[in-house]
Prior knowledge:
mainly alpha; globular
Amino acid sequence: xxxxxxxxxxxxxxxxxxxxxxxxxxxxxxxxxxxxxxxxxxxxxxxxxxxxxxxxxxxxxxxxxx
Length: 66
């Protein structure tokens, strides 16, 4: 069962808004996104997961990269 989160709570976080701005310009891997923040790749992946649960972003696997 897919968890549905409130989209307004998801985009209330400044880091998630910054991630959305970066992704609006170009598709990026979690590693590439993490390079823009002073945080771990795991933290960025958690933000991406929350945005995915709101159907704001979608992840596509291409080879070994997401």
